[in-house]
Every structure is written in structure tokens, then in C-alpha cells.
Amino acid sequence: MEKDRLLALDQASAVSGYAIFEDGKLIKYGAFSVDDEKITTRLVKIKKYVLDLITNFNITRVALEDIQLQKNVETFKALAQVLGVLTETFEELNIPYEIVYSSSWKSTLKIKGSKRVEQKRNAQKYVLDTYGVKATQDTCDAICIGAHVLINKRKNATFDWAD
Description:
The chain is of the alpha/beta class. The chain is built from 5 helices and 5 strands; from the N terminus they run E-E-E-H-E-H-E-H-H-H. It has helices spanning 39-56, 73-93, 102-108, 116-131, 137-155, and strands spanning 5-10, 15-22, 25-33, 61-65, 97-100. The protein has a 5-stranded mixed sheet with strand order 3-2-1-4-5, with helices on both faces. It starts with a strand and ends in an 8-residue tail after the last helix.
């Protein structure tokens, strides 16, 4: 029987966090960065890094964070391009994926805070308390996205992934 390998991503146009869960257990986590000036060059590198994770860890499904309207329109456009490239990649590879709202995973994991900085700190505390992992904010967000998906899968046996 094939192992369930979930890749959770807190993707961005510069620094992206990732977490890999095997049969519900966190087995690998980290972040990668691309710092090229041109967004198209960054997109190519992001896609390659994610493809390497998929290949090296035999990923069976993916969860990634949805984008939010940003004060800076250029940042929002770059995040939309990253999301588009990644979802197109998953479609091409026929890998099921789910796009998760940040408010959803924060609600599931009871990550509180009135300001973004406080929420980020509380996500890091959740990851430390739950997994014993002290990591960067990007990595912690990816771990939290994966934890949210796994918790909701257990709650709902008819969980529906994108086809």
C-alpha cells in the first residue's frame, strides 16, 4: 500500500516554507528562497524546487496557502503568479491539491492574535508545542497548513481533494 505523503507549502515569491507529512507524521520541513530580480526567473526556480520535493519524497498530495489581497499590488500579482504556476504543475502531474485560506488553518489550530506578528509568533509556539520544532515563520506556517489538512481529513472521511 502506497504511503500518504502530503506536501504543505507556504509559498511566496521569495521565501517559501514547506513541510512533508508521511501518514500524518511530520518527516521533513524547511524553507527555500529565490532572490532573482525577475519574477519569471523566480517562478522557474520555485517550480523546480517544488518538483524536486515531489520527486524526492514521492508526494501523493499537496496543500498550499491561498493568496490574500496585499496593500502592494505588485506583491499580490507575484503571489498570484506563484499560485498559478504551482497549481498548473500539480494539474500536469495529476497530483491532488487543496488551496487553504490562512484564516481556516488558524481557526482549526486556534492560532490567535490581533496583529500578523502575534499570529506568526503563536503559529511558531503551536509548532514547538505540537511537534517539538523550532523553525522560521515560513516553515511554521507550512507545518500549520499541513496540520490543518490532516486534522480536517480525520474529521471528515469524505474529504474531497481537487480533481
